Amino acid sequence: MSKRDYYQVLGVSKTADISEIKKAYRVLVNKYHPDKNNDKSESEKKVVEQQFKEVQEAYEILSDSEKRSQYDQYGHQAFEQGFGQGYSQGFGGFSDIFSDIFSGFGFGSSRSRQNYPTQGDDLSASIKIDFVDSILGTSFSQKFNKYEKCGHCDGTGADSPNDIQVCGQCAGSGSVVENVSIPGFGRVQNKSVCRRCSGRGKVIAHKCRTCSGQTFVKTIKEMNIEIPAGIKDGTKIRLSGFGEPGSNGGENGDLYILIRVKEHKYYTRANNDIHINLPVSVIDVISENVVEVPSPTGMKNLKLRDSSRSGDILTITGAGAPDPRNPRIVGDLKVHLAFYVPEFNNKQKAKLQEIFSEVNDKVKSKWLKDF
User: Fold this and answer.
1) Binding site membership for Zn(2+): which residues?
2) What is the homologous superfamily of the domain 267-358 according to CATH?
3) Among 4, 18, 111, 302, which is disulfide-ready with 199 (CB 3.0 to 4.6 Å)?
4) Predicted TM-score of the model (pTM)
5) Known binding residues
């Protein structure tokens, strides 16, 4: 079966830069990831699995400037077994020579590859927040490193505009051409990247005194981080442009902040519901009293019934965690009843014994009868 065009697989144009390719890849790999499609049938899973592999294959080629250059010129056959290496098995190492000789025709380095804008790598960090803050939402200020274009050289790396000069070795073309004599081929032209300017066509006489020729400077910026109400443990928040610096004019990478929620002494969370174990006196149960239940948003009232049993789970609707994607959807507070018997003095015990002696314990008598 013929392969689909890699650009069509990722849904990008042939002129797309690396940031567009990365963005498309992230969306598609998340869409077709096996863990995201567990609810599909076996036949559908196989289709999704193939699409997932197809996206990964396309990204592997198009994210690599050298492989992309070969693909643009030769298509899928550039990566088929035997292509461009037919002599390598019988003439040890000849494929490397062949690549050097014909570098100007797509097998080796090129000026476009050297100058291709490349986005910087993403960085990661993590922060811990309190359980209640994760339910109610919070915000805080924190300082982060950020790479900015050097203001002195405007990102050129040169100390002054006059320090940017045309490369004398390649005359500004970024490449050099040499006539090479190869047995069996005669004299051929070998076009390669100029080593003096690394294919840029220009050289810098004096590097920028501020950034030392790096084209960027490290700054510290204080950012206000908004934590949405209902955020879950393991959620990532993206700070655009706070990653590693790009090269050749490429954009900075991003900073992904992993949110870790601290464990609470009493609360636990399951999806958008909050669970709590509530100590309840048997007196409150017998009296069918209204008891107070702590929640992240304040105290809630709960009416007890004399039919309640220890271990029962009662629900307070809408007192759970909001869904961070849709705050109008709110979970419930699940109250786990844990009965206890309060302490009584001797006089109180005597009165209770008198009362309990008149109680017909049908539950116990039935249990003993069935035992």
Assistant:
1) 150, 153, 167, 170, 194, 197, 208, 211
2) Urease metallochaperone UreE, N-terminal domain (2.60.260.20)
3) 111
4) 0.59
5) 150, 153, 167, 170, 194, 197, 208, 211
